[in-house]
Amino acid sequence: MPFGPIARGARRTAGRDRCSATRSTDSARSLSGGAEANVVNSGPTSERVYDVLRHRLLTRVYGPGQRLDPSILARDLATSITPVRDALHLLAGRGLVDVGTGEGFHVVQIDAPALVDLYAWNLGVLSLALRSWPRTVDRSDSAFVEPDAFAGDTASQMAALCLTIGQMSSNAEHRPALEILNDRLQPIRMAEASLIEDPGSELRALRTALAARESRALRQLLVPYHRRRQRKAAEIVRVHYRR
Q1: C-alpha angle 6-7-11 in degrees, rounded to nearest 5
Q2: Residues 175/167, Cβ–Cβ less than 8 Å
Q3: Among 57, 76, 107, residue at a domain's last position
Q4: What pLDDT, in 10s, does the model give residues 23-47?
Q5: Contact indicator for 55, 186 with CB cutoff of 8 Å
Q6: What is the pLDDT of residues 61-85, one digit of tens each?
Q7: Is 201 helix (H, G, I), strand (E, B) or coil?
Q8: Among residues 37, 63, 74, 199, which one has the fewest Cβ atoms lying within 10 Å of its Cβ?
């Protein structure tokens, strides 16, 4: 029987495959910090636990570096330790939780250089996706997010925009990559909102270009969008840690 990192990797892969079809829309539409009950699905206990913990991580209920004790979380969620551990391993696979040998689970931490790299990677994947446009979009697909139907705060709207760009790519790897990036960036986007001047104007321009399916215009807008945040990375990290 496999054990250690191999077993954890297998569980993460299986969990991602099992849950990806139902989580795509949540990645774009359920990030604005609504009532926790609204994000809990009616599926098996392991999925319900995953949904609650993911929601808490994305909405900064747990702070960077905070220890996530499975036994305490299990009592809080009225479940056993096993589904909590499974959920934490899946969340580690999405870059939201750190797992250290003998150190347990902790909320992932980030510093300014790492955040600069994360912004660069997000821009890189978006640029790759835009270069793979266009393809016919099936609007009956429940994961498709209409550009004029974005709702919520600026962080959630940006997540929806990124997910739509990924969905319209002819490369099927772009959307899942952007789903994970959305999760990793969601707490950061919430922190950056108080530091970026007039983020609403940025979003309106991006949404207009997206609605017109103007990939070149989107690329031209996304570069300064990310560079502006890279320049403020140290300030954003400080706000992120203050919560």
Answers
A1: 120
A2: yes
A3: 107
A4: 444 444 445 444 555 544 445 688 9
A5: no
A6: 999 999 999 999 999 999 999 999 9
A7: helix
A8: 37
